[in-house]
Request: fold
Amino acid sequence: MKAEIIAVGSELLLGQIANTNAKFISRQLSELGIDVYYHTVVGDNAARLKEAIRVAENRADCIIFSGGLGPTKDDLTKETIAAHLGVELTLDKKALEFIEEYFTKHGREMTENNRKQALVLEGSHVLVNDNGMAPGMLLERGSYTYILLPGPPKELEPMFQHEAKPYLAKKLGKGSKIISHVLRFYGIGEAELEVRLQDLLDEQTNPTLAPLAADGEVTLRITAKADTEEAAWTMINEKKEEVLAIVGEYCYGVDDDSLPSKLVDMLVKNNLTIAAAESLTAGLFQATLAEIPGVGTALAGGVVTYTEQAKIEQLGISVEIIKEHSVVSSECAAAMAFNVREKFGTEIGVGLTGAAGPDAHGSEPAGTVWIGISIGQEPPLTYLLQLSGSRNTNRLRTVKFTCSYLMRNLIEKGYKN
Amino acid sequence: MKAEIIAVGSELLLGQIANTNAKFISRQLSELGIDVYYHTVVGDNAARLKEAIRVAENRADCIIFSGGLGPTKDDLTKETIAAHLGVELTLDKKALEFIEEYFTKHGREMTENNRKQALVLEGSHVLVNDNGMAPGMLLERGSYTYILLPGPPKELEPMFQHEAKPYLAKKLGKGSKIISHVLRFYGIGEAELEVRLQDLLDEQTNPTLAPLAADGEVTLRITAKADTEEAAWTMINEKKEEVLAIVGEYCYGVDDDSLPSKLVDMLVKNNLTIAAAESLTAGLFQATLAEIPGVGTALAGGVVTYTEQAKIEQLGISVEIIKEHSVVSSECAAAMAFNVREKFGTEIGVGLTGAAGPDAHGSEPAGTVWIGISIGQEPPLTYLLQLSGSRNTNRLRTVKFTCSYLMRNLIEKGYKN
Reply:
């Protein structure tokens, strides 16, 4: 099966958003072993969309559309496909009920144009939208499979994963399976990882190994092709062991793991509680931990002390520390971590202070960050970061480094990983 | 002039990266008034790239390529174009010198395959690469303009801006200008916005109006085409006034504005200080405000009270309120807002409490959120949200609604907008 992805939306051609849907769908299709030879982006224009469909039908047999299923007049994907294929649009009662419920639930009145979203291609299999109103569609016609997905990623992604992907997997039968497994590293650069894995990278055929750097992390994607899923996984696991024997100390997780999710896992597993005092991150560390369901037993809370006054009054940081060392200092980070732990009565306290940028803080250049970690009654540990990103990159990196340093400390202390 | 952008790279078709180059180039072209009707992505495969070029030549006269100019064997963009057009590749001496210098400068030895990067299409204008080794090219051939750019955004972007864009602007002469201006709305759905703007949408020709929903907001893009930038802006501003006369109450900003950036603007402009007490958002509201440089004079800080105990001990929420109304209640949100304002001595206090999900909080279903706003000594105001997204969507929406409600309150109280 050869697939082509057609994204519909003038906002893409005007450069207002990037085509992240094609990235998502491509990745999913590659897991299924379906080749994607082209992506096309076309605007909200029926004639040009028709032309794109004609071109795609010459080079693919599975055509996946994203966008243009909404209630407004410039949403014309299904109308254009209907005209192109000579198929009627019919009202889907379940979809209409769902849309009506959506409005009732949100206490808003349903306008007439929203009914348009319940129109589907006759003979299509309707794909449920759990995160929006426009249903998706899947239509088999001659040797072609047409899949219509809504544009917003938060609607498209679960719909593809829960509805379209299983359908395609079933249709493919027991063909060759491609499985990918991602190892996640922190504290090592892409170039260094590559040097240390050079022999493995040179000899790779199947499984393949692909290092990629993103957001301060490095990932290594191991992809195996085999006749069965089991066989692919055996190959992946063997290669994984070889990799971890070399750079295992930097590997913090796999696949959809994140540093915060692994940290929360560890905290919950070890019955540890945590509190944080945040300055430059202003709550981002705690907010990031709180993305993980189940964090409630570990995260007590904390304080955001954005100003000097708040550090003194709300957290009891001594005026002397600030005068002598400034708020961007090891001493201040240590005191923040220690005091917030005492204040909230938790096992762990974290203190984050620094100059996020764009401005320096006194003599401390932008990107200077101190991380304080206080575990029990032991003297707090502190770490200095010298970051060189933008204000918000620096804040995000600070959160990631904090997770990483804290986990390493806990592992060294013998807590369960 | 009609342009098509062809991105070359199998990593795009495998979903490893998104085609952000097309976004960048499109935005630049729209500023020049050049219409982009299609984006195409194709892998590192000569036959399929040729097919993409043939298709593009049928529907565009300016074809812009990104990627495939590097030293490795799978970099074949210029080779394929050379074969397609029957043009030779010749060694560009300046490019070769530049590459040799690059290696000397970085203290690395130049491998033979790097010479390949100095081969350019005969008769082309060579585009200097200030951030990498592969030069770009610009070739006029019959009625077509072919522009070849390197794949890495940090090489492509300056090359396009400094070399290709001025060339195209000159070629266009004083042609038509296309300017887009985005109005941003909150608290109104896309469908409702469209109904209320129906007459304007029906009669649109130039400027055009395009509504778009994303992340709980609705935007309306006004795009005008005129001979000069000034004339385009006059048309946009006239249309904008018509739009705002109808739905102005929901419009919170334009272009790159965000709800948090507008709120921070307002706080700074009016010399107001703010503190927040956060439960379900766990610091996300404060962290979001802190993304905006200059927030330091407005944001004092706040507390994250994730547990009941923290609400009682750290914020002085009375046990009676919690017992009688639970922590997910108007009363609790009001007390959190009031108490954190008093505690931090700010003009404004915000209290956020709710069930982010996936689990309900007692009898309160997931997505039930109370926002408390305390301004000065007046009784706090509270707002109920019934959200239906995922845990993190609900937390993000809560932050956006908080910004929106707080701004409306401040505007009603006569603060400068």
In short: Residues 278 and 304 of chain B are 5 Å apart (CA to CA).
